[in-house]
Amino acid sequence: MSIPATTSTSSSLPTPPPAGISVEDRESMRKQGVLLTSFNEIYNWGRANSIWPLQFGLACCAIEMICVAAARFDIARFGAEIFRASPRQADLMIVNGTVTKKMLPQVVRLWNQMGEPKFCIVMGACASSGGPFKQGYNVVKGIDRYIPVDVYVPGCPPRPEALLNGLMEIQKKMREETLTGPNAPRYFRKDADCVYPVPEYGGRDLVPPHNPKVWKPAAPIVRDAKA
Amino acid sequence: METLEQIRDRIAAQFGAGAVTLVTNPGPAAQHSLLLASHAARDIARFLRDDPGLRLDFCSNATGVDWPDKEIVETTKTTQPDPAGGPAKVVETKTKRLQPGCLEAVYHLYSMALKSPAPVIIRLRTVNRTDDVTLPSLTPVWRSCEFQEREIYDLYGIVFTGHPDLRRILMWDEFKDHPMRKDYVSPDDYEWEPTPHDDVLERAKAHYPAPSASTTQTPEVTK
Amino acid sequence: MSATLPDINIALPNGATARRVEDEFHGDLLEISLGPHHPSTHGVFRMNATLDGEIITTLKPVFGYLHRNHEKLGETNSYLANIPYTDRLDYLASLTNNWAYVHAVEKLAGFVPTERCEYLRVILGELSRIINHVCLVGFLLNDLGTSFTPLLYSLRERERMLDLLEELTGARMMYNFMRFGGLRTDVSADWLARLKTYLEGLFARYLDEQDALLTGNEILLARTQGTGVLKPGLAINAGITGPGLRASGVDYDIRKVDKYSIYERFDFRVPLGEHGDTYDRYMMRMLEMRESVKIILQAMRDLPEGPVNDPKAKSRGLRPKAGEAYGRIECPKGELGFYLISDGTPNPYRYRVRPPSFINLTVLEDMCVGQTLADAVITLGSIDIVLGEVDR
Questions:
Q1: CATH code, C70-390
Q2: Which of A60, A66, A156 is opposite residue C388, by nearest beta carbon?
Q3: C73–A135 CB contact, under 8 Å
Q4: Which letter does DSSP use for residue C201 in this model?
Q5: Which of the four pLDDT bands, split at 50, 70 and 90, describes residue A193?
Q6: Domains and CATH numbers, chain B
Q7: Which one of A56, A63, A139 has the shortest CB-CB distance to C68?
């Protein structure tokens, strides 16, 4: 697992090659039928190609997600066709649609119930930011106010190809993860708190209105009208 | 199919003239409606449903409308002769009066038995918008009002007496407001946009009272 | 406990005793909450059911998990800006939502759509109905436990129709295509010819295939016949509309009653059921698809030339005269109505959607009580709800 300090190209590779063998050598050996790999690489290869998404439908985007699972777009090509209804068995949550304040505690609870390692794709404008319903009194302005998000897929609704692209981004992210070292994912860190507080229904809004550990309001770009 | 005037006259003959008023609709649709007095509304509704000439057995749509208190400024012009003998002056006097608001429930009725293509619209009004907001529920007459009246209760706050199960339906039970009312103020949580403008900017400034130069990017404005 | 149930311990032949577990819990009711995250509730619908064994004794639907303030936003938008929002009501058949809204605004403002526009609206509206029913059949059979296979056939056909609509409107689901007194663009003859080829060829084959595979299928009959029965009297009183009403034998189709648009010019029949059970509701959809194909083909045959937009109609900055209007059409799920009050400003003073899915759920408890939980799932599936419209 040691990273060879001599090769400057190794930092851009998805996984470091075994020590002492150059990338070119390894590629040529692979063509000859000799597979040299690291535990890190084969572990990520397996994970990235057998993602089990949560079978979970919120709104319009859920229909496009079903289309992705159907014959034409066929998410099975990426090994992610096993949609599980139970969050305990799933490792990818596709938040597909408008998250309302009434639905949000359930979404956060589902996310908490999923076992690590887990990933989150936000599908569509509504789940990213509130989308066209942003000004609604019952609409959460982006699920990233409560849970961490890995990939945002824009669109209203996104085309199935866009969702597949989002899935490929998740796969890329998985392949780039290392098991040890400073870049190890959050579930290997002992200090990481993987339980996200479930907000409660309040008299006028959810309590709290956002999770300060996950999201902070960005400073606005204020254009000076007089300038 | 009877005209709305005929229906009104028959209701007035049976339930008294104060029980029903015709509300005209000035728009091109010309869908006029009947304003019913709340004390007799459920009996009138039963009459509309069971009368063999009407048979309005299908209550399609039930909805609420909020009419807030409205300040009406009336301008009256009076001509006053000039005592000096000059031309008469036109003096405008403005009088303000407060039209009290109310909450309204509107029902669109059709007849499935007679296949009527035009709706008969009935309206019920509460006394005011604050403390006297009860109306008789029409769910015992038409089951289709059950969820719709719950929705009106949830979003407008009209309390329907005689409703079998009056609870909030769309918002959660702990919610306090009635969000479809015109004076509802939504939680202040959507103005954190990267580039707020206009009235959203004004609200955003409340959250960021003093944007310092280090945290705020000020893009160059090209003219 | 043994005082009330003395036979709870039963002697076995070998001398031991065993406890009868079912007696220990006899008469106890089980409360379950189905949803809002549940694979068979078509989104975020929730039912609180009380079960006696497997039999439902009470069932209370819980709404609001997709309440995204459609009506409140509609009162702050201009009339034109509401058209894309209506797409997101019933997102399986967006064009009929567009149609119902522009129909109501046309009543409010007094616009008259052009002749060619009316024909094209009928074609697009019936195509939406077909798409909706195709999906419904697939999802209903999915609820029956067929695990995705019939849904693959349905979505195959849906993709083919979406290809045509995407070519026409530029979007797969949210078309935003109708305008007051017209349509956004005209439809080319080439597109119509391809639609005709599709409906007469591949789609006709799909309908026959579906009928041969499923309509007479013994398992389907056993699961659906006699379940979720809805009596016509209750259906009328509870305001049920659409195929669910007609499956109970009530002849009420707004296309025939209101004669809105130009539906009186076409020769089509309204299928009626006899028993009001889940199977009848399934058959209504299968038969309505064939009728819709007939209507589309007639409309294509008679399609006149001419402008597609009413030149007097104004979309941008529309300020209708003060007044109100209720316009309704027969959308695939039932009566979709829009109730608009104008006060002369660019925004509607009141913008109300009369959602068929929501009101059709009024009788869900009556249809499900006394049945098993598995039948409640298919009863819900056969009512055909879309949560975007239920909660708005």
A1: 1.10.645.10
A2: A60
A3: yes
A4: I
A5: low
A6: 4-206 (3.30.460.80)
A7: A139
